[in-house]
Amino acid sequence: MGNSFSMLIDGFQTAFTATNLMFGLLGTFLGTLVGVLPGIGPALAIGLLLPICLTVNPTSALIMFAAIYYGAMYGGSTTSILLNTPGESGSVITALEGNKMAKAGRAGAALATAAIGSFVAGTIATLLLAFGAPVMADVALTIQPAGYLALIILAFTTVGTLLGSSRIRGLVALAVGLVIGLVGADLQSGALRLTFGNMAAIDGIETVTVIVAIFALGEALYLASRHQIIDMSVLKMSGKAWMTKEDFKRSWKPWLRGTAIGFPLGVIPAGGSEVPTFLSYGVEKALSKNKDEFGKGAIEGVAGPEAANNANAAGVLVPMLALGLPTSATAAVVLVAFQSFNIQPGPMLFQTNPEVVWGLIASLFIGNTLLLVLNLPLIRFWVLLLKVPSHYLYAGITTFALLGAYALNNSTFDLQVALAVGVLGFLFRRFGVPITPLIIGVILGPLAELQFKRALQISQGDWHILIAGGFPKFIYSLLILVIIGPLIWNFKKKFSLKK
Amino acid sequence: MILKKVTKHGKSELAFASSLFLLGIFVAWDTSRMDIPQGSSIVSPQTFPYIVAAFTSLIGLGLILDLLRGNHGTPDGDESGAPLIPVNYRTLLIVAAAIGLHVILLQTAGYIVAATICFFGVSYGFGSRKYAKDFLVSLIFAVIVYFSFTKGLNINLPSGLFEGMLSNGK
């Protein structure tokens, strides 16, 4: 604990150099900018900005990513409140009450409680991250390959079955992701898979290309196929983005409760920010004295979920940094960002690259503060961005996504992959298949294979090792709970309905 | 006949599910004819792909069964059970073509041409009909991106048709 504290101080020293502060500031600016634009969530934002960031040194670039990560979420809540088009799943609930508040002329209060709540939750959660992640990393050092494989399979199952409305469709996305992850040369033997003599495919398919294409191109194709002229009427904001004493009184408890719900659900692989924001909304609705206001613009319904969303985002970073296991699309992109600098997140990270990881954690604090200071006064400026006509917006997103796909390796093959994945993204949206499990499959598939092979090498080919030992047994019992739990729940519900 | 229960949307979804099933078989076929380098380790490089192939086909079958029971996926952004918005193939193809042209033209015609066409195409697909203004916006977008990447960030983009003309400044 004491060690973490002194490391964190060192981290602040890293983050507080003029260059790194500048990159942090640039990151908060860019993050909010792309976060405000409807249709771009944090995952796509970082994916789009990755080629730009590759030109600077790793520490500065990762500090910039941290700033973009939080910035994009701030921007996202602004859009959901004023435009009712949530950019990512975590802001769906915010849009529910926030947009109603804005319609009732209380946009300022909604934006303020979202921003301050995100700040409070982000700061507490980042503290928990700073002290929790090293502990988890220490424990993780003792995990054997078989245990790792069990953890990955647990992450597959939770992300695959808890997201979206249909379990089988979550698993569809996971399966396609695993197949994409297979493409290229096998790491150990060099055997070629699914390359069909294409030299460019030997190195495998770039994860960033998949992420950028499935979000940006898939969304553009999908919206075009529906040919809805998107209603871009931005709600007017009267007065300042600030809240009254009464608003504060009603907000601070939901902020803390949201943090308490969001952070732990980010640490355990519970499948993204949908579950915690939804839970927080439910809790606030149940506890509120103003139940009748819910659905018409209750401030608690913005404060709680927004805090839960931010705390969740910090929580997701714990397994990402300490285990190398991303459980949300955004954490997946941050992982790829690390990897593109040849830094591998995981138990060893805190020992091999302390300056990077502590600089990153310190800059999360700094970024969070900068956002609060910058955004509340600047909200009017961000709102102007919402007036960009949607046809230019999607033209810009599409063109920029293609640029990002190409610029990573200067490769035409990557562009062709992007087109194919874009079409896949369209089909997924059309048939109600969630996107995140695909990304988790692409990233964790090769890792699963690696741990699988390591385990079998230790046991000289005896498959029993996969379920031997206490830790794998514990994880697989959890897995069975995750699968059976909801089934019993549904059965009970049906049963009581019949009665 | 069993297919009677399936709606038109369900039928295209059935095609999607079947191709997932076939994808699994395809992966298994590719794995079976894999060249395995000499001196491979204890675990064959074929084991994991076979597992993925089996999983993919199994999930494909599961989706087919789900569809045959009359369930179907809810398109992104729709309420479950809401009337289905039909696919507008014209606008879809316009946007797809804009992206495709960018992919094809980038190396031969260069970034500025490819990006201008892509930007213009997508905004046309999204319903904009102010041709002159759209073209100008597209061109300015492409030019700004081109120069800020090649000159500002030192990330090379193909100059294509303008080869020589644009590289003088460097």
TrEMBL record, chain A:
The chain crosses the membrane at residues 21-40, 46-70, 109-133, 145-164, 171-192, 204-224, 316-338, 358-379, 391-409, 415-444, 465-489. This is Unannotated protein. Keywords: Membrane, Transmembrane, Transmembrane helix. Coiled coil: none annotated. The lineage of its organism: unclassified sequences, metagenomes, ecological metagenomes. InterPro entries: DUF112_TM. Residues 21-440 form the DUF112 domain.
TrEMBL record, chain B:
It holds the Pfam family TctB. Residues 18-158 form the DUF1468 domain. InterPro entries: DUF1468 (IPR009936). The keyword Cytoplasm does not apply. The chain crosses the membrane at residues 12-29, 49-68, 89-105, 111-128, 135-155. Keywords: Membrane, Transmembrane, Transmembrane helix. This is Unannotated protein.
